[in-house]
Amino acid sequence: MNAAEVPANGAALEGARRATGDAAPFAPPDPEVGAVARRRQFNASERARILKAADACSQSGEIGALLRREGIYSSMLSTWRAQRAAAQRLALEPQKRGPKINPMLAQEQAIAKLTRENERLCRQLAQAHTIIDVQKKVSLLLGQLTDEKPQGQF
Fold first, then answer.
1. Which of 50, 58, 59, 56 is nearest to 77 (CA)?
2. Separation CA 55–CA 76 (nearest Å)
3. C-alpha–C-alpha distance, residues 154 and 151, integer Å
4. First to last CA, the chain
């Protein structure tokens, strides 16, 4: 298309718009952006309500109807039941008295302890190497002395 055809084509479209009464040949794009699909999340009260309703089901097919009505899978229900049982067991276990240990502080203390132990072992190793070197030198000196035996003895 050259520059002369564009205005002529545009004028033809303009005349067609006036004849049909359309204000614009193309509708402007919708500026609203569609929502991004997200997984449904259940808070603790919703989970407790659904579990209570599932526990109340006594006839066959009631749990399936509950799952369809709530829009959840049976695996979610079994996972929530396992989590509830674990939480109940944890609540009944005796708790350690006293202040709770900060995991980051405990990790730093463990690293410091291991570093001190490593330095102590390095010093012991250096001392052992020194002792071994001295023993080698003494052995060489004693070996030289024992090699100088009188010629008559064999």
1. 50
2. 14
3. 7
4. 117
Contact by Cβ (8 Å): 77, 54:
yes
Q: What is the pTM of this model?
A: 0.43
Residue 14 in contact with residue 7, Cβ under 8 Å?
no
Closest CA to 70 of 54, 84, 87: 54
Determine whether 76 is exposed, middle or buried from the number of CB atoms within 10 Å of its CB (0-12, 13-18, 19+): middle
- Return d(Cα 71, Cα 14) in angstroms, integer: 53
pLDDT tens-digit profile of 65-113? Answer: 999 999 999 999 999 999 999 999 998 988 888 888 888 899 999 999 9
Instruction: Enter the DSSP assignment of 30.
Output: P
The position carrying tokens 């009464």 is: 21
Count of other CB atoms within 10 angstroms of residue 54: 19
Residue with token string 């084509």: 9
Amino acid occupying residue 58? S
Residue 81 buriedness (CB in 10 A; 0-12 / 13-18 / 19+): middle
What is the rounded distance in angstroms from the CA atom of residue 42 to the CA atom of residue 66?
15
